[in-house]
């Protein structure tokens, strides 16, 4: 890959790394698992980057790759998590300190969301990121109507979890 392509990737990844951190937070419990998943998502993004055609926004594409990677690894964690060597690409990204000391309400919300299934988590995450239903549907590969229906059901489910 050309150095110019690498620089473009790094710039776009740095601008969108909070997306990855938030997905990691949804699908992991603990700082080490968070870092491992962040690393794996970054590797998958780098591997897939040459195929990124720009048909969608980089952030939308990042959501899709990150969510697919997180869901795949999340399902595998019931067995074991394996990661790809990353040392050769560490210089790409400046690590932004991620604050693990969130407010109590946010912790409760994450705890509730953590109880949802994989697709529900992804939908809630994108909804909280102010993505419109069209973008959510495109990213998750479902219809816009289906995304709306699922979100309404998830809201009810979260209310029951948070207010038993």
UniProtKB/TrEMBL annotation:
The entry's keywords: Sigma factor, Transcription, Transcription regulation
Entry keyword annotation includes Repeat: no
Domain RNA polymerase sigma factor 70 region 4 type: 111-158
Domain RNA polymerase sigma-70 region: start-end pairs: 14-80
InterPro entries listed in its UniProt record: RNA_pol_sigma-70-like, RNA_pol_sigma-70_dom, RNA_pol_sigma70_r2, RNA_pol_sigma70_r4_t2, RNA_pol_sigma_r2, RNA_pol_sigma_r3/r4-like, WH-like_DNA-bd_sf
A GO MF label: sigma factor activity
SUPFAM superfamilies: Sigma2 domain of RNA polymerase sigma factors, Sigma3 and sigma4 domains of RNA polymerase sigma factors
Gene3D superfamilies hit by this protein: 1.10.1740.10, Winged helix-like DNA-binding domain superfamily/Winged helix DNA-binding domain
GO BP terms: DNA-templated transcription initiation
Coiled-coil region: none
NCBIfam families in the record: sigma70-ECF (TIGR02937)
Stated family: Belongs to the sigma-70 factor family. ECF subfamily.
Protein name, per record: RNA polymerase sigma-H factor
Organism for this UniProt entry: Flavobacterium bizetiae
């Amino acid at each position: 890959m050309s150095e110019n392509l690498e620089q473009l990737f790094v710039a776009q990844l740095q601008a969108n790394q909070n997306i990855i951190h938030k997905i990691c937070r949804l699908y992991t419990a603990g700082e080490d698992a968070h870092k491992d998943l962040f690393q794996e998502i970054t590797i998958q993004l780098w591997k897939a980057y040459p195929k990124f055609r720009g048909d969608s926004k980089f952030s939308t594409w990042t959501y899709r790759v990150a969510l697919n990677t997180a869901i795949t690894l999340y399902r595998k964690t019931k067995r074991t998590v394996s990661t790809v060597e990353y040392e050769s690409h560490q210089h790409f990204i400046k690590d932004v300190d991620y604050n693990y000391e969130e407010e109590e309400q946010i912790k409760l919300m994450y705890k509730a969301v953590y109880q949802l299934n994989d697709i529900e988590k992804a939908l809630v995450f994108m909804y909280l990121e102010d993505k419109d239903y069209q973008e959510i549907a495109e990213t998750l590969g479902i219809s816009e109507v289906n995304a709306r229906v699922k979100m309404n059901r998830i809201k009810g489910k979260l209310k029951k979890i948070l207010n038993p």
